[in-house]
Specification:
The protein is α/β, with parallel strands linked by helices and 339 residues long. It has 14 helices and 10 strands. The protein has 2 domains: 127 residues, Rossmann fold, CATH 3.40.50.2000; 185 residues, Glycogen Phosphorylase B (Rossmann fold), CATH 3.40.50.2000. β3, α4 and β4 form a beta-alpha-beta unit.
Length: 339
């Protein structure tokens, strides 16, 4: 999107993205190359403002350079230091002038620690929702409006999809006995090649409609979603769709996470709610049998499903109205003294 808007791309973040500790060694050359390129740019051009977005392991090093060269910093989508590595709070305080945070509880968290933080809402709220109602959307997708639909959100990284989509598909086959009319849609992330995905679906034994680069459209027709833990869980919550969350990582990464992570849940849905409102299946619990069992409970128990939906609506209210990008842009103008 940034390239489409005319931004000059100096280094591509998708070449540096890692899942777990074991992947980082493969990406070290790309990460080091990006670091030295950006160091040169900051040193030689001295921009008026550096805007950092997410990716704390790398971006905090760039923030340190900006401080060294006298460049003010706005951090948008801040490190989740409330979950792990709270030592990064000191780095944020040392290198960053202002924080634009996207989770409702983060503003108070950072302000209590002396940082200038402003809750700007979440960028997901700025994404357009389908204009058609669910029945019209189902008809467009050739889905039976009278039969249940499960949406698959297997992730935006190849490692996640190849690891978790087979579990989702096998759970789907297990559900066919109880729900022979069950229908399926899959939200294909723009980072995943469609042809590659279809090789995973070839022997699934399920008729799955792929919806490319429009997760809200897939969720709008769904009664339930199988979701890989990550931003997609919040996206599903904001669409008020009941879900089952699952995640698996390498054993080494999981053991390391158990040591350093200090939160009771893995999904943003439950973290924002501050209670368990959707089931989470992690590591050995992320099996087709457990996933199918959780799905049966939601599909067969209207009261359970209604309670989950009601609590998802409460999460949606916490985020307020759209306008995240506009609020962040105003912070940029204030820092540039152009308001």
């Amino acid at each position: 999107h940034m390239a489409e808007a005319g931004v000059e791309i100096l280094a591509s973040s998708d070449k540096m993205a890692v899942v777990g500790l074991t992947e980082i060694f493969k990406k070290l050359p790309a990460i080091a190359g990006a670091y030295f390129k950006l160091k040169s740019v900051l040193k030689n051009t001295r921009p008026d403002l550096l805007i950092l977005v997410d990716y704390p392991g790398f971006n905090l090093q760039i923030a340190r350079l900006a401080k060294k060269y006298g460049i003010q910093v706005l951090y948008y989508i801040t490190p989740q230091v409330w979950a792990w590595r709270q030592g990064r709070v000191k780095k944020l305080a040392a290198y960053v002038e202002r924080l634009a945070v996207i989770l409702p509880f983060e503003e108070d968290f950072f302000r209590e620690k002396g940082l200038q933080a402003q809750f700007v809402g979440h960028p997901l709220l700025d994404q357009p929702r389908p204009e058609q109602n669910p029945i019209e959307l189902r008809q467009e997708l050739d889905l039976d409006p009278a039969q249940p639909v499960i949406a698959l959100l297997p992730g935006s990284r190849y490692a996640e999809v190849s690891n978790l989509l087979p579990i989702m598909l096998q759970a789907g086959r297990l559900l066919k006995n109880d729900f022979p009319s069950l229908q399926w849609v899959l939200a294909l992330a723009p980072t995943i090649d469609r042809a590659w995905l279809q090789t995973l679906l070839r022997d699934a034994g399920l008729s799955i409609k792929i919806i490319s680069a429009d997760t809200n459209r897939a969720l709008a027709v769904a009664d339930l979603a199988f979701v890989t833990s990550g931003t997609a869980t919040l996206e599903t919550a904001l669409m008020e769709v009941p879900m089952v969350v699952l995640y698996r990582m390498s054993r080494i990464s999981f053991l390391a996470a158990q040591i350093v992570v200090r939160v009771p849940f893995i999904s943003l849905t439950n973290l924002v709610a501050r209670e368990k409102i959707v089931p989470e299946l992690i590591q050995k619990d992320a099996t087709p049998e457990r996933l199918a069992g959780e799905a049966r409970m939601i599909l067969k128990d209207p009261a359970y499903k209604e309670t989950m939906t009601r609590k998802l609506k409460e999460i949606r209210k916490k985020y307020g109205e759209p306008g995240c990008s506009q609020k962040t842009a105003r912070m940029v103008l204030e820092m540039l003294d152009l308001k």
